[in-house]
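User: Please look over both lines:
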Amino acid sequence: MQHLEKGYVIDEKYTVAMFLKEGMCNENYRVLDDNGKSFFMKLFDMQRVPELLVDSEFGVKEIAVYHKLQVGGISRLHTDGAVEIEGKRFCYLITEYFGGELLSEVISRKEILDAQEALRYTLAIAEGLKEMHAAGLVHNDITPSNIIFTEVSAKAKARIIDLGHTCEPIDGQPPFFTSDLDPFCRAPETYNNVYNMAGDVFSLAAVAYTMLTGKMPWQYDISDPADVEKIRDTLRAKRIMTPLEISEKENLSEHFRNAITQTLKASEKKRMTLEQFVDAIQGKMPVKKADVESEKRKMATESRHEREDEMRVSVEAERRSGNGFDGVAGMEELKKMMREKIIFVLKNKDLAEKYKLTPPNGMLLYGPPGCGKTFFAEKFAEESGFNFINIKSSDLGSTYIHGTQGKIAELFKKAEEKTPTVICFDEFDALVPNRSGIDNNNLSGEVNEFLSQLNNCAKRGLFVICTSNRPDKIDPAVLRTGRIDKMVYVPMPDEDARREMFRLHLAGRPCENIDCDRLAKLTEDYISSDISFIVNDSAITAALSDSMITQELMENCIRCNRPSLSREIVKSYERMRETFGDTVAGNARPHIGFK
């Protein structure tokens, strides 16, 4: 729905000149400033912006990315803000507006580009990516539709646009939706929630291939774009059985051609860096071309080896050393329950047998992000002296059919070999999503495997701690007693907990006359990670002048750093607490499943 008509004035300065297009939760416009200069504006309807894309400081994460990224090869942020239109809140960003042509339009017009032209374009895109990577960010969506060329001279000038998927390198659930990523340009490892600079290099090679051939690498007609798992498996099979070739053409150097095909077939760990790829396509670094048939045999062999390697879980149960619960500020009731209901039972086998005591199978720690859920699990392992395994969703990811199911089974088998063992599953909602919303049988099979392994695992010497910011996304069958027995809400730290956090984080650092009571009062609504940041940032400032960390320094840092979570987000978690209950607080668990 278009909210702004031509002539509408934003922020008393920018006048709408033209509506461009509508996105999932935004509208794009060309606007003019007081001097008649054109700018691009993206207007976000905050009622439609999903929680995943919300930023506590700038309203929308895409705007936050623009603030981090002010480099030449990217469309630059001019200003941003928030407005109320017809009683609804909108956030907006305004960037430079430049004339030019999308690369997708160039390819549509020319079908196949001249080799030298394709090389110039590839180098221009790489220049923008280089600046982005230097800022510690990954674009994650390099496609012909997200590149615009402002000049097509001997040295092409490219602008990388659409930063809706841009983030820091991540190994886990990404902070954006992935359903709109181009399947032919996204790197294979992104299906396992691995997003890093190597993925951008793959995408750049895919774009170069498209310019030279007029088609995407391993392109085929997709019948159901929503069936991501089927697309992933089909593309993997094509990569194994169909090595890419680029026909010889005038001015197309062998090193340019080989660099593209080698980059597209290589696994993440064997892929060239951006710098190596740039050198390779210019002939500064030799890349050999393999015979097609031998390449096919090699890829099939590598695939078998990769499958065998991938089916192994690359984590081990290890005993952790540390100060245990002494390093945890607050959470006294939770610590008491863990000592009495779990550690005592597992460490006193004779008494457990005498009184027929069975420790709980597992526990879900849920609540706002950044409040120390995973940290608590680590400290529990230290306190208990048990072996510990920390699992992220990417640790169990597999690009093979049923591959993740095999990894889940192997994980529990490994854990049983070194009992007693604590297994901590981070972002549990990503591992066991509600099957009612899953069309793919593979994912349902993975949830079923978890159900099987969780059943009475305490009797096998295993205790499972799961963490999640979104328990409402977890399959209800997993949350039944006998699998996950306890639901514990980990709230925002209260004043006492914040005081203890400051004391713990400042311990051992050069500081004087720090009033932790006052700091705790000043940091209402701050989460654990906020407090850790404030102490570290103050310490860095003090270190630069080799001086003491002072109360004034700490308070200045607090004034300059607002809480990470908005009041609205905190309230949404309090409502979630009412729905799911809290074992520690004594709230009854809601009924889950059949009565």
Residues 438-442, 586-595 have pLDDT under 50 and may be disordered. Residues 115-134 form the longest helix (20 residues). The longest strand covers residues 14-22.
